[in-house]
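User: Show me a protein chain along with its predicted structure.
Assistant: Here is one chain, sequence first, then C-alpha cells.
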Amino acid sequence: MLSVGPAFGLERAVDREDPTLGVEPAIVSFIAARAIVAALATEPGLLLAASVFGGIGYALFLVGGVTWVSAHVPRELAATAQGIFQGVGTSLSQVTAAAAGGAIAAIAGIDGLFMISAGLGVMGATIVALAVGRSAAERYAS
C-alpha cells in the first residue's frame, strides 16, 4: 500500500479546517478511472496499469474515511467508530462486491462488468461531488 503515505499529505493539503473536504470526489474518480481503463483494456499490462488508479482511490478512501469518522464522533469513541468503518467499508464491501460482481459477470461478461462498474463510478463521483460542493458552500456561507 505504497500510496497511503502520499494520501496523508493530500488530506492535509485540501482544507485545514476539514481535511476530508474535497477529497471525496477524487476518491470515487480514481476508482472510476480504474474501472474505465480496465473496461477498455486489451492486454494484461493495461489491467496492471489500471490497478494504480484503484490503489490511489483505496488509499484516499481509507485515510479520508478514518479521518472523517474520527472527526465526527466523540473522542472516546473514535477507535470504535474507526473499527466499524473498517468492518463495513473494507470487509463487508469486499464480500458484497465479489458476490454482486460475480452475478453481473455471469450475465454481462467481464467486459460488461467493468463497463457497469465504470458507469456506477462516474455516477458516484458526480453525486459525491455535488454533495460535497453543496456541503462546502453551506459550511463557508455561515
